[in-house]
Automatic annotation (TrEMBL):
Belongs to the RutC family. It comes from Caproicibacterium argilliputei. GO terms for cellular component: cytosol. This is RidA family protein. Transmembrane segments: none annotated. InterPro entries: RidA, RutC-like_sf, YjgF/YER057c/UK114.
């Protein structure tokens, strides 16, 4: 049976979707923008948005009893591929020893005019 995961420390979903759904030992996390969970605002700059997005991912992982170490796959969406190097440095702060598989694509547009979004799959 699938279980919906909702994190109190992550921003509310912008539409009809869950923060994550757990199917067996696998957790499928919806894309997280860099929205501040309290104000709902996007910080200025791709680095700040990437850091907040990763913190939001961490909150959802925690709500499911998981950590960044359980993440096996991520997909990063950038508004501008020129930001690739900058976000790599921030990403490396969260994924240190065994890095998950990753895709990174430039999106024509992201919700709320965001510069960064990330989704993930984790396995316990």
């Amino acid at each position: 049976m699938n279980q919906v995961i909702s994190a109190k420390n992550a921003p509310a979903a912008l539409g009809p979707y869950s923060h994550a759904v757990q199917a067996g030992g696998t957790l499928y996390l919806s894309g997280q923008l860099g929205l501040d969970p309290v104000s709902g605002a996007l910080p200025q700059g791709v680095e700040a948005q990437a850091r907040q997005s990763l913190e939001n991912i961490g909150a959802v992982l925690s709500a499911a009893g998981m950590t960044y170490a359980d993440v096996v796959k991520t997909t990063v969406f950038l508004a501008d591929m020129q930001d690739f190097a900058a976000i790599n440095a921030i990403y490396a702060e969260y994924f240190k020893d065994v890095c998950p598989a990753r895709s990174c694509v430039q999106a024509a547009a992201l919700p709320k005019g965001a510069l960064f979004e990330m989704e993930a799959i984790a396995v316990k």
